[in-house]
Predict the structure.
Amino acid sequence: MTSALPATRRTSPAAWGLATAVALMVLAMAVPAATGWFVHVNSFPPLHAEWHPRVGWGTVPALLLAVLGVRHAASLADSLPWRRLLLVVFLAGLAWMLALAFVDGSHGVSRILGEQYEYLRTARSTTDLHATLQEYVSRIRVEAGPRHWPVHIAGHPPGALTFFVALDRIGLGSGFGAGMVVTVLAATTAVAVLVTARVLGAEGAARRAAPFLVLGPAAVWQSVSADAMFAATAAWGIACLALAATRRSLGWSVLAGLLLGSCVMLSYGLPLLGVLAVAVLVVARSWFPLVPAAVAALAVVLVFAVLGFSYLEALPAIHDRYFEGVGGRRPWEYWMWGDLAALAFSAGPIAFAGVAQLSRARFRDAGTRTVAWLSGAGVAMVLLADLSQMSRAEVERIWLPFVPWLLLSCALLPEPWRRHGLLVQVVLALAVQHLLLTGW
């Protein structure tokens, strides 16, 4: 009887974290429904989603992957040789994303990216990218009239549009073709996070976290959102930075800078990756990559500037566009905590349990120290993004670049928590995909 008490005490931070996540999720759904508070999002706040129960072609494969994952993912992650584990992580993640997306058939991959608010329509109509970059800032504000950019073009630097213009030029400009490219890239995100953790001395923790990086509700949005491509770019930039720091390599430093600089041109929120980059250098105890990586990152921004896009001029323009539009109508009193509830749906409530477990981290262990720094940086990025109030709603996709670093903290959960927690994650993913029609 007495042996159960210490175990209870050890798991109490995780229990508090899980309870916080569930409370946020319930309140974020219940408060608008009970009070009639219109928070200016689709009919199922805090998610940009509508109630739409259904089954489809992907239902059976998704259920099968969920069962196999809950039963075998942990043992495979523990026993597979490292390189084989990375391959399995990629393939399993890709299969999970596609199975969930195909609940709606091939339309589940193509529908979102093909909508009028997204990048593809503008990418297909772009015949002169240089000219587009020169007029990019002038078309952000609503006052530009009929020529103002669609929501997602206006809301992001031109790196995202450039990516989809490139896809269109090589024949992958259809909704399905672009969706498949985004999904394949998204499936590499978990691989990059695992590589980062191992390079920084946390292979054991990486193996324990691997099932959570692969199987979870974030996959619902990864097949249909350009932010999943942003997340992959960010994760590989951080992985390259870790390699640069531990190997004192100029080549890896430059590659890290190019990828992280590309992130700055993909989303106005991704300069927050600087917090994670500093955490990597602290863990590696090496500042060697700092200057070459920063120079390479700045070079990416300067290339776009030379071609006509001014980042500094774009910032006030996007601020005006956001608050002139729906962002200005969404009440901050709800979204300050409603965003965290949406994150709980996307990352899964077990991510909150893992983050809470960081309070018990013992920094004497190298692996634990690495996880604490990386996941702690993930928490910091989320909080800074939330406080900025430039992400009111839709963070289930916008914060995808931060999600895997939060999930890495699941490695610190006790084994029973990990075993049952993975079940919670896959059940939530299946429920969201089969009960809700998500807007992104």
